[in-house]
Each structure stands twice: as structure tokens, then as C-alpha cells.
Amino acid sequence: MNHYTFFPILITSSGILFAVIGILVVFLGFCIVGGSGFFLLKKKAFANRAVTTQGTVIHIEQTSMSRSDPTPLFKPTVRFQSATGSMIDYTPKIFSNLANFQVGQIVPVLYDPHQPDKISIGKTSTFWMPGFICLFVGVVFAATGLVFLAISIVF
User: Fold this and answer.
1) First-to-final CA distance of the chain
2) Is the pLDDT of residue 1 over 70?
């Protein structure tokens, strides 16, 4: 028995192989585009109900990924005054490998007045960037899948 026996449909027509790959990659691209669209809509809804203020970086926690990987990771704590006058200290749940902040630095803060744990600190570009990167990746996947589908028509 030769190794071609398991994949006879792929050997008889390379167009089918390109069509299957194209359909899967287009589907994956549309899923990524849909997920990033959902993410961006959630961000937009948050931005519409959020209050903008200024906060001060009061502490920066630093750690490393592991003992074998000493790459530094940072997590700033920001203090800001809410619209009701209470002082809120906020520390993100995750670390970042970017040392974007310094103690004493004034940073923009976006927070939901009804859910004070929903907060975004830093530049507006960092607020929107993950959604747009995912959107771009999804479009690239979908376009690549369409190229595979076009090639399948030629074969």
C-alpha cells in the first residue's frame, strides 16, 4: 500500500485541496473579523459611558516572566479622583512588557462611573489597538483564503 491511498481526492485534483484550504482560511478570517468587531463594539460602548479624568502613577510593580526568562514585566498603580470625589487606586490585572509609565506621571484615565472596576489607563491608541490589530489579521486571513479559492478555480 502506498502513501497516496489515504488522500486520493487530494491527488486527483489539486483544485479541491486549494478550495478546502481557501474555505477554511476564509472562515477563520471571518471569525477573527467578527470577534474583533465584537471587541471594538464593546470598547465603543465602554468609551460612550465612561468618564475621562487624569490620574497619577503612584507605584509600578515589576516582575519577570520566570527564572529562566528574566524579561521584565510591569504593572502600574494609578490613583485618580472619581466624579463623586472619592479617591480610587487602580492596578491592572495583567502585567505588560512595556515600561510605559513612571511614578509621578499624570496619565489619562477612562472609567465607568457605575462599575468603577472597569477602567482603562494610558493613551487612546492603546485602548483601540488590540481590536484593530485583530481586525487587520482577520482581513489578511480572509483575503488569503480568497486567493486560495481563486487558485482552486484555475486548477
Assistant:
1) 28
2) no
